[in-house]
Amino acid sequence: MESYPLPYHGYTVYVALFARLQNAAALRQRLVTASTLPADEDGDRERAAVDSAFVDAKMITSRLHLLTAVQQALLARADDSLKTKTLHSEVLWMLEPGTNITDSLKHFGLSPSTTSLVLVHIAPSPLPADDAAAQQGANEDVLRRMEAVVEGELVGLEALGRLPDGGTDEKALRKIYKLNQDVALKSLPSGSTEALEAIDKLMTSAVALKVAM
């Protein structure tokens, strides 16, 4: 897991990548159920347990692609211009080329067929912000809670795009973003290193510009 303290936002971003996911269908059902539970102690506890953005890793081209969506979500919150109910759902919305949150969940969120999963948890930074021990403790707590809900193999974020159970879903991204119409990609063979690098740049740029929509 990686963590990114952002003092200017007052938040820390925690990101973990899990390969060979074993409980995708059950975990998705858990998320749905948690959203419908009453606002009582048990319901709040369950929602806190799954309080993260659950992103299908095959739809992410690189660490920069993902972190750009996180940064855009935080900027939207700072500007009081969130399009969704939470920071975590805003991350998924930022990844979607359109404006429909349902589409963003469908295209980039956890599904029963997900085999690799990125969890993004955004929380207020420990105080004081420069306390290394406090940050380390927070890192360990967040990772422990992530591993309590996800059945999979924790791997480094550098594996994004080349996971053992499938890399970036180039075909899906081309379709969602209508990339086959892009002049720069027409001459690049699908699946080639050059095509994937070009798609990564296009994805990251699109997310970076979405906040202006």
Give a concise summary:
The protein has 213 residues and is α+β, with helices and mostly antiparallel strands.
Descriptive notes:
The chain is an alpha+beta fold. It has nine helices and five strands, in the order ββααβαααβαβααα. It has helices at 24-36, 41-49, 63-78, 87-95, 101-108, 132-149, 170-176, 183-186, 193-210; strands spanning 2-6, 11-19, 53-56, 117-124, 153-155. Strands 1, 2, 3, 4 and 5 form a five-stranded antiparallel sheet that branches. The longest helix has 18 residues, at 132-149. It is globular. It starts with a strand and ends with a helix. The model has no long low-confidence stretch (mean pLDDT 91).
Keywords:
alpha+beta; 48% helix; 213 residues; PF0523-like
Instruction: Assign the CATH class.
Output: Alpha Beta
CATH superfamily: CGI121/TPRKB
Count of separate DSSP helical elements: 9
Uncertain parts: none
- What's the shape? globular
Rounded to the nearest angstrom, the radius of gyration is 17 Å
By secondary-structure content and strand pairing, the structural class works out as alpha+beta
User: Number of DSSP strands?
Assistant: 5
Sheet with the most strands, sense and barrel status:
5 strands, antiparallel
CATH topology: PF0523-like
Number of domains: 1
CATH architecture: 2-Layer Sandwich
N-C termini distance = 31 Å
- Secondary-structure element pattern, one letter each: EEHHEHHHEHEHHH
Helical fraction equals: 40-55%
Q: What percentage of amino acids are in beta strands?
A: 5-15%
